[in-house]
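Review the following:
>
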Amino acid sequence: MMLSRLAAHFSRYSLASLLVTLASIVSFPFLTRIFPVADYGMMSLIGVLVTATAAVGKLGLQQAALRFYSEVRAGQSAWTLPQYEATVYVGLAGFGTLAALLWSLGITVLPDSLFTSGPQGRNLLYLVAPLALLQCLSSAVVNQLRARELSGVLSLYSVLQRYLGLALMLLTLLYVSTTLWGFYGAQIVAETLCLVVLARWFFRREPWSVRDFSAPFLKTLLRFSLPLVAMELSSVMLSLGDRVLIQRMLGSAWLGVYSAPYNLCDYIGAVLVTAFTGAVTPMVLRLWADEGEAVTQHFLQRVFHLYLLFAIPMVAGVSAVAEPLLLLVASEKYRAGAAIIPWVIGGVALQGLFPVASAGLQIQKRSGRILLAILSAAGLNVLLNLLLIPSLGIEGAAIATLLAYGLMTALAAWMGRGTVPVRPEYRRIAVFVAMAALMYGVLMQIQFPQQLTTLLVRMVAGAAIYAVGTVLLDGETRALAQQALDRFGLFRGKA
């Protein structure tokens, strides 16, 4: 029952992530070709700064809202649902505004020597300041939807936001300004419009008033969330800090070469990882509150192996098509970046496993221990980047990212093992790994003169090899495949 519910949420998130990824695939070759490599690298660096500023502005309230919703809904809290909503929205709006103002103040006092493009670079950073506020406000609404398991609405919102942004970006860059100014201007307009539409819909569904704002409840949320500020900043450092170090150590051009394949892996991983993360965490918290330990543990056990079933071949498959895929969607000037794709996609897969690994800590409200896991990984990432970038270049940065995500996931699992331990079924995992390795070995032998032909044949052959192999060798996978076929009325019968 719960797996069916998870599958429903997962399918919605996956479909949305797929559609968002398709939009990204449309924009990706356009942006990598219209902008110089150094400008593309600058876009990546600005993204780091905006995300870090928003992390400070949110003060972890979006995560606290997700954690406390089940208690408020069940009447296990001293506060009502309107008080909950008003406090979350007003709090994030206020702190987000403060973060945007601090961003602008910081830009004003920084010396000119830090801006490689002079006054134009400083003015561009002024322009993108509202993005920090928009991210804070968006997190308030998005986590309200996640808490309520409204995966369909959230999926629609993410798709609408991405495609409106894509349309405005293309129109602006083609007909108004082929500069970073045009790119970020279109992004701000698109995110504002989508946020207004969703907020109005949500308010009509569950109205509240500013008068419902509760300062005592905000203090309760902040006691839980403040450690999460450091956690989110550590997450930013972990996922994006390598961009800063590459910029300082290798320059903007190499940052662009690194960012293009890294972003490509993020787009691919979003179909599996984002969907998985978005579906699992709220369900785990609700199961623990409503059903107890045994049901929650069984659910996590099943989800863990289901995730590996898809994540392991994702890593092997993307690694096998790395170069033809990058050359097709980017251009020849990013060829050197193909070497980092196996490391980065491996890191993406490990990052996606974190919701299962940290489930016990989430249930216990051990935000400090979650922080410790992420902070340790971020520290390791910085150290390894400093050690590996001088000798291995951008590939060293990618290796550092993979090892850091591995440490983060392992630490979270170890510290939360006493609450809902997940026991790996090593035989099943061995089957997944063996078939993924076989798939990779076969695919690397397939080569055609045309990159597109090579890519398509490798993708089809890889999916066939892994699917047939796991269905034949793993009973659980065979049962899942039979269920999927039965659902569509195909080949009904016993597994």
Summary: The mean pLDDT is 82. Residues 425-495 form one domain. The chain is about 85% helix and 0% strand. The radius of gyration is 23 Å.
